[in-house]
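agent> fetching stored inputs for the flavin-adenine dinucleotide docking request
agent> found them:
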Amino acid sequence: MGNCLSRDDSKTNSYSPVALAVGESKSFNGVQIVPEPVYNWHQTEATTIISLDSNYKELRPEDVVINVSNGVHLTIVVYLGSMLYQLSGEIYATVSEMSVDFIDGRCDVCLTKFEVSHWSALHGGAPLAVKFAPKKKFEMMYCSCAVKEVRQVTHDTKMFLVEFPSLAYVCVPLGHHVFIRHVAEEYEIVRPYSPVVNLEGDRGFEQGRSILLLIKIYPSGSLTRLLAHLAPGDSIEVSRHEGTFTEECFHHTDTLFLIAAGTGLTPMTKLIRRFLEMGESKQVKLLCANKTEEDQIMERELTALQESSHARFEVRHTLSQSSATWSGLKGRVNREMLQEVFNASEGKEIFVCYCGNLPFNIMMRRILRGFKFPEDHCHLFG
Ligand SMILES: Cc1cc2nc3c(=O)[nH]c(=O)nc-3n(C[C@H](O)[C@H](O)[C@H](O)COP(=O)(O)OP(=O)(O)OC[C@H]3O[C@@H](n4cnc5c(N)ncnc54)[C@H](O)[C@@H]3O)c2cc1C
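agent> prediction call returned; pasting tokens
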């Protein structure tokens, strides 16, 4: 973490620590009690380091979101199951750089002071506010991000590389989404988007510092008709992440079956990459549903991945309005189409994820119920 030298113990916070060991949690009347994180801080002349002990050894980079807006307004959010911990408020003086380290359940946020000086407290005006409560009791946090690149992907979808400010850290977990907000004089538009990864080469973004969004533009859509005009150098407001998916749910599965309609493919890209990385025994089958050939997203990347995957990744496409030359599956996703795939995977434990528009999701839920899939072997992104 660079030049973090001496610890100034007199500046530790007085927030009451919990009497649980790292990684331990207790339950009371069957309700899991999540221990509350504690924070501490120390400084050198050049840096201030905030150490946040989450009490969870398994704390991952994606469990922490940080933003220091205008160099002085600090927000640190820690995701702990159904609970959020938030430390927020104005810090003593302006900072110009930030780096983050994770060690055994502790998160160290190292802030470089704009001016070399000694801080007599961590906070500026009022003491920093601490809130530890169920997720739904928090307002969404947004930060202004820079659009770095825009690329037309199909006739109506665009890829946006969006960079968080240098004093922000947002690492979106697998299967989670962010919100984009547009605030006009009299109204506010907020829509969720699932960050994607490149399926070939590097991920296409820098973990924690940027995200890649693939967005379908609706000419009459409230938000996307505005996003259609974004160019490199413009800014957009992006939230911290949200979602219910946890990677653990498919750890014991050998076959992941993904059903995506249109831009429902977006959460699947990360899943495909991550699942294939988990071991040679893992297989992914993807069924993409679109209207026409022109609507197919990332088709070249998916085909290339299939060819290089040694039969561990298989993609099928179905079109509801196919041309005479189309040789893939035809029609909307239906029971028979899924039956064929499930039969081919007989004897294997399957985990199914699906994502599309509302009518598609309702239809998929009905079909999957018909197959008597255990609820905990299915996940809907939506
Ligand atoms: C968890 C989640 C993740 C998502 N991730 C992505 C993603 O990665 N990429 C992506 O492109 N999208 C994604 N979406 C969809 C996205 O959030 C927006 O819904 C989408 O971008 C449309 O927003 P909009 O404001 O432009 O359109 P809206 O104004 O919401 O309208 C969408 C379309 O419906 C039409 N419409 C609106 N109201 C009506 C009505 N009453 N009757 C008939 N038609 C109507 C509009 O004309 C437009 O064509 C995701 C959705 C969810 C829930």
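agent> quick read of the result: Residues 1-24 have pLDDT under 50 and may be disordered.
agent> awaiting further instructions
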